[in-house]
TrEMBL record:
Sorted UniProt keywords: Hydrolase, Magnesium, Metal-binding
Protein name, entry field: Trehalose 6-phosphate phosphatase
EC number(s) from the headed UniProt entry: 3.1.3.12
Organism (species): Sphingosinicella microcystinivorans
Protein family (similarity comment): Belongs to the trehalose phosphatase family.
Pathway: Glycan biosynthesis; trehalose biosynthesis
Described purpose of this protein according to its UniProt entry: Removes the phosphate from trehalose 6-phosphate to produce free trehalose.
Highest rank taxon of the organism: Bacteria
Segments of skewed composition (Polar residues): 1-14
Length: 255
């Protein structure tokens, strides 16, 4: 979601999985990619990210080489991904799997139910009172607290209480607490795509850096593949790791 974090687990406490095999060593590879912190560097605000030179071409070439078995799975809204990437040649999933558009398709899969308006009003009031950035999405909203890193516990406690009142689920990420309808996660969209003819029977690899990517790692493993953690974190379900965004680009360049 484009917000940096300075409060992650210390690398001294985090297990670092080994590097992944090169793409050519993985039989009938499928690739699922987080966006922020994986394909693009974090920035001070979601709209402040910068796409690396040649990133879109790199992704389109990789997708073509994999016969379409590449998808970007992000917490960002689908329209936001579209605005930054500007291509119909990639399969995009926004809102943690709640929105989907297949490559070269003109229509988007409809998202689930919108969040309650009153919940958003209360969230807006809380964000304004605490000097937080509130990011509104099609399926929910996210409290970003990078500018106030000590507010994490307060923000998460409020988000949990608000979620309980309105039947929403709170998810914690890097300097962010997000509320959205329950039952939507990145693992679900991996499972859904793996059931389609294009992805069926392939080896899924999910690459991501955040806590919300753990669902994707587990889903990839359940379908005979594995997860690749970008950076370091204790307790990850990923069995391989890449050091940073540049390392992800280099790995994708071998496809």
């Amino acid at each position: 979601m484009g917000i940096d974090s300075s409060a992650e687990t210390s690398t001294n406490d985090a297990r670092t999985p080994p590097p992944p095999p090169l793409p050519g060593m993985i039989e009938r590879l499928s690739v699922f990619l987080d966006f922020d912190g994986t394909l693009v560097e974090f920035a001070h605000a979601p709209d402040a990210i910068e796409l690396g030179s040649g990133l879109i071409d790199l992704l389109e070439r990789a997708a073509a080489a994999l016969e379409g078995r590449l998808a970007i799975v992000s917490g960002r809204a689908l329209a936001d991904l579209d605005r930054h990437l500007g291509t119909r040649r990639l399969t995009l999933s926004g809102s943690h799997g709640g929105e989907l558009r297949l490559a070269a398709a003109d229509a988007n899969a409809p998202p689930g139910s919108a969040f309650p308006r009153q919940a958003h009003l209360e969230a807006s009031a809380f964000a304004a009172a605490h000097g937080l950035l509130l990011e509104t999405k099609p399926l929910g909203f996210a409290f970003h607290y990078r500018q106030k890193p000590t507010a994490g516990a307060t923000v998460e406690a409020f988000a949990r209480q608000l979620g309980t009142r309105y039947g929403l689920e709170m998810r914690a990420g890097k300097m962010v607490a997000e509320l959205m309808p329950p039952g939507i996660d990145k693992g679900g969209i991996v499972a859904s795509l793996m059931a389609t003819p294009g992805f069926r029977g392939s080896t899924p690899v999910f690459i991501g850096d955040d806590l919300t990517d753990e669902d994707g790692f587990r889903a990839a493993a359940a379908h005979g593949g594995f997860g690749i953690l970008v950076g370091t974190r204790a307790g990850t379900a990923a069995t391989a790791s890449l050091g940073d965004v540049n390392a992800v680009h280099k790995w994708l360049g071998h496809i």
